[in-house]
Amino acid sequence: MSTTVTSAAGLDVAAVRRDFPLLSRTAHGHPLVYLDSANTTQKPEAVIRASDRFYREQNANIHRSTYRLSEEATAAYEGARETVRRFVNARSTREIVFTRGTTESINLLATSFGQAFVKAGDEILITGMEHHSNIVPWQLLCERTGARLRVIPIDDRGDLVMDDLGRLLTEKTKLVGVVHVSNALGTINPVKALIGYAHAKGVPVLVDGAQSIPHLGVDVQALDCDFLAFSGHKVYGPTGIGVLYGKESWLSKMPPYQGGGDMIASVSFEKTTYAELPAKFEAGTGNLAGAVALGAALDYVTGLGLPRIAAHEADLLFYATARLSEIPGLRIIGRAREKASVVSFVLGDIHPHDVGTILDQEGICIRTGHHCAQPVMTRYDLPATARASFGLYNTREEVDALAAGLRKVLEVFGA
Amino acid sequence: MTALTDLYQEVILDHNKSPRNFRALEGATHSGIGHNPLCGDQLTLYVVVDGGVIREIGFQGKGCAISKASASLMTEAVKGKTTEEAEALFTRFHDLLTGPSDVKTDAKGFGKLAVFSGVREFPVRVKCATLAWHTLHSALAGGGASASTE
Ligand SMILES: Cc1ncc(COP(=O)(O)O)c(C=O)c1O
Q: Which residue ranges does chain A devote to CATH 3.90.1150.10?
């Protein structure tokens, strides 16, 4: 793969690729073409080093001991929290809760917010393009409480039917949950407008930022979202670490999610008082090295510049959409007005699973299946799609490799 | 490209395109639903068993080339066999797909089913090739039970 490219957006992609050790490996004797960043991203040297350094030089449990080493570990961990705060522009680190990822963030919210504010007859409003992680926790809450889950539909192109909002957003609605960027369709949802409508009715909004954090970034104050969930591993950081942002005014009214060490102020068998935010929501020893490495990942992204990354990925999306559209029988699923760097498609009547296997033999990694968004597949009457998704390190040459690979699929199937 | 051409052999592509016995059977004595959550493949199997012998068999559903061709070829392979013979064939078929790739298994006695020996090189696809067989197994055992590859 030629990597002498500097993208139109001014990102030195060749240099960027050298930051990611894994990208230089091969698969089935071909240079690796990794087009599955919406699933998980590869990690830059800076992130790998931050994790490594924590264990080599800083490791101790935090907030618990008087010795110097523990102080350093605590400083590293809390430093990462400050990096996250800055990245999403939260008012205070009290609003940044570390979790295992988007899924745990949403489960925390559904459990804790649900316990405080949701009862029988209430409604939770989500959209038709949510990832299972923003569906199932709410269904569990509805089962527990007798509340009802309602859904904003999607149209044929993959945009939310915003006209239905007036009908769906009622005085019964207790919370709106919306995916900022759909992992299955690439749609960038009009979350700011949605938040405006919801707030006009006094309803708080959770934004699932799993896919928007790496590609667009999120300014929680500009959006005025009440909650934001995201995963470290989708923004070039480690697995097993993620974030729940919540406005302090909400978090302070919510009960703890799990009980244990670190989340208490004092414990007796008669009564336990809880720690201040955010510790109240961080029971037990967390993923310390993971948090520190997540901080390094966000610094890396900030260093390259989110606007430059977004412009580079927009170019890849534009180019991929054009190249793939030339392939006979290929149909792109998800033609929303505004999209991030995800291209879902089907190739004639060839099953996506077969497409994936043949591309893999060419060293090309794409996702095939329902993308943990089965309702989206049902909406378009498809069992599955193939999906190429791009990160900051991908190139037009890799899109060309994908197009060539897809022609090979057609060849194998004699189509 | 050789592993690939071993996987997508002519017979498999043909049965994917024009699956045999691709229909629901009225008067089925046994039926089953198979589901592969990983790729969304789904298939319904209809069997007429009479005197311990599979007299008729049909299937419907959606799936990848491997799972569809496997279902199609399975229906051809087990029609006229006793249920015990069909179960025994499943066991041998499973071994054919999952045996170590450096040990050559004897493809003799498999007839057309031997085309699936290429699946061995693609461990994630084994479930696709065995979905119909798992479904047959649970249909014969329960009559209406459902099978899942997970
Ligand atoms: C939009 C969206 N939400 C939530 C998730 C779940 O993230 P995680 O598995 O890291 O908890 C994903 C991951 O695929 C996603 O794409």
A: 13-31+305-412
